[in-house]
Amino acid sequence: MGSSEQEASRERRTGALLVVAAAALWSTGGVGVKVADAEPLVIAGLRSAFALAFMLVVIAVQLRGNLAVVGRLLKRPLVWGAAASYALMVVTFVLAARRTTAANAIFIQYTAPIYVALLSGPLLGEKPARSDLFATAGCVVGMALTFGGEIGGGRAAGNLLAILSSFGFAGLPLLLRVDQKRLDPALAARAPLVAMSLGNAIAAAVALPAIIQHPPSGPAQARTLVVLFLLGTLQIGLPYVFYGVAVRRLRALESSLLATIEPVLSPIWVLLATGEQPSVMAAAGCAVIVAAVVFQTAGRRRS
Hints:
- By secondary structure, the chain is an all-alpha fold.
- The chain has one domain (about 15-300).
- The protein has 14 helices and no strands.
């Protein structure tokens, strides 16, 4: 293996580890959203506001006052498209989780790799390998097993919101990758974090009227604000910094498939927080998902 191939392998390995770390942090969101005592749109907006503050600090440290880079990126339509996808994803997921079961919301959201697999070819020229298609099918089967019997039940509005969230989840890596193919390396390195910061600003702005009308209050106000701060910084801000670095090192479908570790971990946090044990079917579904991701990674390594 030549030096360039070794470097590419290291880059992909680093990207994969960062996505796994991000997914582990994302997986704590379900518990946080349930614990926070506020309107769903208020939760989504304040979480994004805290995340925006966190990401702006990271951008300031990275750019060291060179705001011209941010200005150039903000002129790019695809950066705005990625930001809108991000905002759609984070807002509609919280709304969905409050209007349907958490299982419904996360299962439907994680149909995103299907859209990524279908669109990576025409948009990115990244033709899915056979292992990608098998892994995508495996993720769908695993999710169906994990949350079998939960879809439906008169929860049409929440399910529809979760579908919108899945569109945002797929659009984020696709649009970032499309734009990065047209950018010089210096701008491409900053584009993901700028797009997601902009997305948090959009989400916070959308939720601002609700925040003004229904701010967190009552005996649980302090606890709710602490939970939302942690959701914004550690459950959204930090993992999306990881994801922004990783997305440049992985194909769009790889990043989406690796992120499916999030719903595998979510039942573990629920068990620790509430004592609720996953069913045998849920455990089987988690095993299928892990096997699918491992199969996909091994398949790409062989190719």
